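Field notebook, page 245. I keep forgetting to write these up properly, so this time I am using the form the group agreed on. The chain and the ligand, protoporphyrin IX containing FE, are recorded exactly as supplied. Prediction of the bound pose follows.
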Amino acid sequence: MSRTHFYGTLVGKKVVVAVSGVILFGFLLGHMTGNIKVFLGDEANGVPKIDVYGYFLRTMGEPIFSYGQMLWIVRIVLITALLAHVVTVILLAVHNRNARPVRYAQTKRIAATPSARFMMWSGLFILAFVIFHILHLTTGSLDPKHFVQDRVYGNLYRAFHNGGFVVIYVTAMVFLALHLYHGIWSLFQTLGLDNPDRNKRLRMFAALATLALLLGFASVPLGMFLGDMPEPPNPANLPPPYGGR
Ligand code: HEM
């Protein structure tokens, strides 16, 4: 079977949705566990553990890959997974609607259920958040006065001593959790895994997985804002490659 033919089948699309969904979910899990390193303090040399982690992300794969190259490969995989996931979910939704035995023949506009509408709007909101977030904490272009390249702990410390950013991030995380809860659950249905004997456990899995992500992600802005987190170290006192700037 050719690859295009495989994607053309219903099973092929379901496999694409499931595999890309697992990649995206894995990214979120990894990103959340990486973020909570802000609470782990500093290495013996005084460098915040989360800065060491950020440095690792840029240097992973060396010496086979040069600085940042492996990170770009990961980014390309994630963007591909995101595009494949969104496009295929939409194609499957259209297929399911067309396969419905009783169609809304009299309605001119396509009738979307409230949850489908919620998924669309929350998905767009999350997409907007990701763009905002990259401009804020990766490129620093949104708030350059409080951003220093590669100083992850300091950037988070300064960002989340601003209540406005805390509200934006925590709100986005609540939408993300609701979107994921619904997404994981309907993915199980799309894949045909749902069954009255298992549904309770599947729903419980979706709820616990999204709750863990919500709490883990939200703990960083809330912890920085409400907790008594130490101030970022002075880069001049840090060893290379972290110090001296
Ligand atoms: C409170 C929640 C979050 C915090 C505190 C946070 C923090 C950060 C930080 C500090 C960076 C820069 C890391 C570095 O430069 O080494 C980053 C990058 C990034 N974050 Fe988040 N993040 C959060 C939630 C999310 C969510 C929910 C998503 C996706 C839906 C996301 C997607 C990304 C992406 C795509 C990058 C860019 C990675 C790269 O290409 O370098 N983040 N985040």
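OBSERVATIONS:
- The radius of gyration is 21 Å.
- The CA atoms of residues 235 and 241 lie 10 Å apart.
FOLLOW-UP: compare against the apo run.
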